[in-house]
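Input/output pair, single chain:
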Amino acid sequence: MDTLTRRKFLLTSGVVGASALAAGAGAYGLRDLLDTAGDRDPQSRTLVLVTLYGGNDGLNTVIPYGDPAYATARPELAYPAGEVLRLDDDFGLNPALAGLHQRWSGGGLAIVRGIGYPKPDRSHFRSMDIWHTAQPDRPGNTGWLGRWLDRAGGDPRLAVSFEPALPPLLAGAQSAGASVPVTERKAAKGLPAETLTAFAAAEAGESAARGRAAACFADLRSVDEMIRQVRDSADAQTADPDGEQAPATATGGAQTPLDAQLDLVAQCVEAGVSTRVFSVSLGGFDTHADEKQLQAVLLGQLDRALTGFADRMSRTEAGRKVVVAVYSEFGRRVRANASDGTDHGTASDLLLLGAGVRGGWHGEAPSLTDLDDGDLKFTTDFRDVYATLLERVLDADPGPVLADWRGRLEKLF
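Output:
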């Protein structure tokens, strides 16, 4: 098992120097943020970045069910048209994204299609490094929001992560954002063990379909228990000498549930803290095998967390100035593999919701047949989105942050 923690990765990869890391990560708590309540311009917007670590399968998130090539490429993995949550006659959302589907219907969800960058890299760490630094052409040593922070005054509380360690995107040359630990946060209590056991037990006289459902549930419980044992064993064996919490997976993502992270963001926004950028994450999207069920569980967590947060933000003036952007380091390959999963791919989708976002489609959907060695060809450079967010959300000049990048998504807001 890969025991590389985010802090160790940062210090060895050159993404951020140790001095910048010390300036932010671990130096602040929630009280330090709340102490800035009332210090910000009430008209300013807030950016919340949600990172899906592991490479989320965009084709089974925003599903091109109207294209015959979709079902042909992944016959066991594809969702039939009758199961998707329709967006139009060609595309629909994963069935687990019911809350986001409602926001789309109300005009509150934007989907940027075909997002990526030239000469894509299929390494988790290198691709995420590219997204964090916004430098696809060469290895970078500062994050794009870290460079913004350098120019915005350098106070770590302006850019906050509720993840176990400071993500590279908040690391600047002279300053770094704050990594605030999420403590005493617990997931909702589940069903009693005896109830779960009953779900997994076969009953005399039941139909074949019900018998298969019980067997599948029993298998799922066995896998869940195996994963718990492996995780607990790994936690005991690989405790960080710094006392740092390890990421949820080898490819990153906070262990704390996403809804708990977003709850802290909501508290900060409602209190009017000075923070302009929040970074949160959800891991586990590296779905090389048995993808359909696992991804649906993860997307369900994402959907509940995002829609609950968006509903809460809609109730206050400060909350109505929040913009949420959801992305992953890459998509997956068009064709399924032999294990009912998908391997590392390239272009995918980016989701935005919140203040002033113009809902609907942005960017061009990539072809499922005109491929680059089996992968989607990107149609929208992710730096177009970054530049637009810097201008329209953070009221900043993208030029010094993004090396004079000129691309924009003019109709996004």
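The two ends are 43 Å apart (CA to CA). Residues 1-26, 184-188, 226-246 have pLDDT under 50 and may be disordered.
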